[in-house]
Design a protein that fits this description.
By secondary structure, the protein is of the alpha+beta class. The protein has five helices and five strands, in the order H-H-H-H-E-E-E-E-E-H. The chain has a five-stranded mixed β-barrel with strand order 1-2-3-5-4.
């Protein structure tokens, strides 16, 4: 029985180490269930990451209890299973928290053209100022210059009509309407 526990621990530790250093990225990412109805079932704990955690902790607890504490196998086995389940649950809970903050990014959400902005630093004639605007749930600011080369006052609402050489090209909103 000690050999089984040691083998489980070594397998789990080796696989965890390889995963931590990125060698097994494709095998450990993409193993989650997207179905909302299954998200609270026990099935979500059966994935590569949580099974490796189970194996490592099951093996470590079993081996330590058998080899050093000299517990009998019938007492060691349930304690090792509980230790493995606890590790799988902790790892899966952590992964769920990390994935909860993920969101799909769409390129269209980051297009500057057509975005309404407010001038925060006046744009001088043929010069560069600054505009602020909301984008993808955050407040962004960019250097900006006037599309027609005329000055634009601070607090003026503008529309971003282009983006050239790292500077937004803007036009006052009232000129467009």
């Amino acid at each position: 029985m000690e050999t089984l526990f040691l083998a489980c621990f070594l397998f789990g530790a080796l696989f965890s180490g390889l995963s931590a250093f990125g060698f097994l990225h494709s095998a450990t990412h993409g193993d989650h269930i997207d179905d909302a109805s299954a998200s609270h079932s026990l099935l979500r704990y059966f994935n590569v990451t949580s099974l490796v955690a189970f194996s490592a902790w099951f093996g470590a607890a079993g081996y330590l209890l058998r080899h050093f504490a000299h517990w009998p196998s019938l007492l060691t086995l349930p304690v090792a299973v509980v230790a493995g389940w606890a590790a799988a649950w902790i790892v899966r809970t952590f992964i769920d928290k990390v994935r909860a903050s993920e969101r799909v990014l769409h390129p269209g959400d980051f297009l500057l053209e057509g975005t309404i902005a407010k001038v925060t630093v006046s744009i001088p004639a043929d010069g560069v100022g600054e505009v602020v605007f909301p984008m993808a749930g955050a407040r962004r600011s960019e250097g900006a210059r006037s599309a027609n080369g005329e000055a634009i006052a601070r607090e003026c609402e503008v529309v971003i009509t282009g983006y050239e050489q790292g500077v937004a090209v803007v036009q006052p909103l009232d000129e467009i309407q």
